[in-house]
Amino acid sequence: TQSTWAVIVLSQQSLASSSAVAGLSKLLHRSPHWRSLAITECGLGDADAVTLLQAVAKDSELEALDMRYNELGLGAAQELGVLLALPTLSLATLSVRYNALGDGGVCMLVNGLLERRADAPPVSLNVDHNGVLVGGATALGRLLQANVAVGSLSLFANSLGRDGAVQLSLGLGSNSTLVTLNLRQNAIGPGGAAALAAALESNERLEYLDVRENAIGDDGFAALIAALRSNTTLATLHVEANEISKRGALSAFGAGAERLALRALFLGFNNLGCDGARCVALGLMANASLLELSLRRNAIADEGAKHIASAIELNPTLRVLDLANNAITQTGARALAAALAAQTHRVLADLNLRDNSIGLGGARAFVDCQRAVNVRVNPDLL
């Protein structure tokens, strides 16, 4: 009987031998009605990947393909480009993260996407950790400019640098399909952040941007924030571990904070300190859009916690607040608990205080404040 499997998953299975690959290829060809294929961490080489992908191209109904953590190169990339261009296929999710496609492989994927039929579903494309440089970013910028239906693009842990971010941004400004963009760990620096900011001034579609660990500094963060004064579409911004200080905090939460339409801002692992926390607090008193804020590991200490406490007492929208690992003691915890008890709008529902030293006295203050808030503390306090 004809197989009707919907999903095939092979994880951490050895596909290093030609016989194993041939057997799997035969199975894929004989059972064309599956929709999702995952071949992950299988040691699959480039030549054998070509054999498998050629089998996939024959009569399959593939919608999701995951080939992460293998040894795919230019040969596999060429076949993937063919798959993406097939008019009979509706491939919507492709992950090739942690392979070796490089710029050449990314260009082949882009060529396939540019030939994709106009009514094909939006593609979620993940090419994390593939040695992508400026050349690949340039091709992806061209793809974005063409407004091919790519809904999500992840480029984590590549090496785009400033110039790669500039090339990508050239297409992002006029793009109307991309919703999610991950550029974490790409060394884009302040210049790359400024290029993205320029694109955000005209982009009306992107909702999620991750530029963690990119050394964008205060200047790069300020450029992004300036663009977001007028951009009301971007909802989530990750800027963790970017050497942002009080000056950067002031750019976001100083004058004009009320016009910042972000819903979630992740500022953890930066250098805000107590003074930066004070800037954040002043902005929170004016802002009525932010729903989630992370200040994790910013050395704000008790004085910074007191500033934040004064803000959450008045802020009308903030629901989730992460203050983990900030050298907050019982003193800061009590100030936060008192603010919860006195909160005008009573909207804060989740407060993370893990990896601080609030002690049993600080934990008890939250019990005594009689608010239904999920306060997360270290297990040894429970």
Brief account:
The protein has 13 helices and 14 strands. By secondary structure, the protein is an alpha/beta fold.
Ordered list of secondary-structure elements with their pairings:
Blueprint: E1 7-11, H1 18-30, E2 36-40, H2 46-56, E3 64-66, H3 74-85, E4 93-95, H4 102-114, E5 123-126, H5 134-145, E6 150-154, H6 161-172, E7 180-182, H7 189-200, E8 208-210, H8 217-228, E9 236-238, H9 246-253, E10 264-266, H10 273-286, E11 292-294, H11 301-312, E12 320-322, H12 330-342, E13 350-352, H13 359-368, E14 374-376
Parallel strand pairs: 1-2, 2-3, 3-4, 4-5, 5-6, 6-7, 7-8, 8-9, 9-10, 10-11, 11-12, 12-13, 13-14
Describe the structure.
The model has no long low-confidence stretch (mean pLDDT 92). This protein has helices at 18-30, 46-56, 74-85, 102-114, 134-145, 161-172, 189-200, 217-228, 246-253, 273-286, 301-312, 330-342, 359-368; strands at 7-11, 36-40, 64-66, 93-95, 123-126, 150-154, 180-182, 208-210, 236-238, 264-266, 292-294, 320-322, 350-352, 374-376. It is of the alpha/beta class and 382 residues long. 48% of the residues are buried. The protein is built from 13 helices and 14 strands. It is 40% helix and 13% strand. Strands 1-2-3-4-5-6-7-8-9-10-11-12-13-14 form a 14-stranded parallel β-sheet, with no helix packed on it. Helix 11 packs parallel to helix 12 (330-342) and helix 12 (330-342) packs parallel to helix 13.
